[in-house]
Design goal:
The chain is mainly beta and 274 residues long. The protein has a domain of 181 residues: OB fold (Dihydrolipoamide Acetyltransferase, E2P), CATH 2.40.50.140. The strands form 5 sheets. Strands 9-16-10-13-14-15-17 form a 7-stranded antiparallel beta sheet, with no helix packed on it. The chain is globular, with a radius of gyration of 22 Å.
Length: 274
């Protein structure tokens, strides 16, 4: 996986950095695994705008991803690695021995023709899904469940991964991409390896129009608004607008928004490092 910088033949090409897509092998998605996606344009059921800066964008369909990996003991062969417009990582189309087809999050190093499997007491190889009780300590993992059978919720974006640090009783101690160390039940599943498309963070859109293709409308800076529209609005000239905060007045850029008495706090061993 790599990125390439284009020659500045036009102003929009000058700063553009795009993916080479050399890891993508499939051009058309599997029809049986597609679902329609309706755009709201940021409007609710009364037609009123409830979310700003959303609208337009290219028409796309949702790819049904298997986050649960619950076909235990049945081998699957990787048919193709594909681009997914709904996520930053690549996805892999796998054919199971019983004839079923599914999409999974493609880990880094997964190749076409490779066989993967999920379940108990299997080899901890890239693409295989195991229970945390069976994964060797120090292994790099992704697509981690928070509750048994729920499906992977953590470490799913491009290039992200977590690490199984240790086990304490019925819990596995997992170090997350944010630096947070957290307890997860050892009956939860996780997939071996890191997520594909690690160079996604190096990509640059190059022009405003490319943002519009993604369904993002131009965003107005709060300090350019009037006091009636935003707490940071108003002032003479290019004034900073005071402490950064949201439109509702909640402080931003360093202000902690997590509830102090949240139920899941007991599972956090070490909080996110600044």
């Amino acid at each position: 996986m790599a990125v390439r910088k284009l020659k500045p033949t036009t102003p929009s090409q000058r700063f553009r950095v795009q993916s080479t897509f050399e890891d993508v092998t499939g051009s058309k998605p599997e029809k049986s695994l597609l679902a329609p996606m309706k755009k709201s344009g940021g409007r609710n059921n009364q037609g009123r705008m409830t979310m700003r800066y959303i609208g337009g964008g290219h028409k796309k369909r949702y790819r049904l991803i298997d986050f649960k990996r619950d076909k235990d003991g049945i081998k699957a062969k990787v048919k193709s690695i594909e681009y997914d417009p709904n996520r930053s990582s690549r996805i892999a189309l796998v054919f199971y021995e019983d004839g079923e087809k599914r999409y999974i999050i493609a880990p880094n190093g997964l190749n076409v023709g490779q066989e993967i499997i999920s379940g108990k007491d299997i080899a901890p190889e890239v693409g295989n899904t195991l229970f945390l009780s069976n994964i060797p300590l120090g292994t790099v993992i992704h697509n981690i469940e928070l509750r048994p059978g729920q499906g992977g919720m953590m470490a799913r974006s491009a290039g992200s991964y977590a690490q199984l640090v240790s086990r304490e009783g019925k819990y596995g101690i997992v170090k997350l991409p944010s630096g947070e160390i957290r307890k997860v039940l050892i009956t939860c599943k996780a997939t071996i390896g890191s997520v594909s498309n690690a160079d996604h963070s190096l990509e640059r859109l190059g022009k405003a129009g490319r943002n519009r293709w993604l369904g993002r409308r131009p965003r107005t800076r709060p300090c350019q608004m009037n006091p009636v529209d935003h707490p940071m609005g108003g002032g003479e000239g290019k004034s900073s607008g005071g402490h950064p905060r949201s439109r509702k007045g909640i402080l931003a850029k360093g202000f902690k928004t997590r509830k102090k008495k949240k139920d899941t706090n007991k599972y956090i061993v070490e909080k996110i490092k600044k």
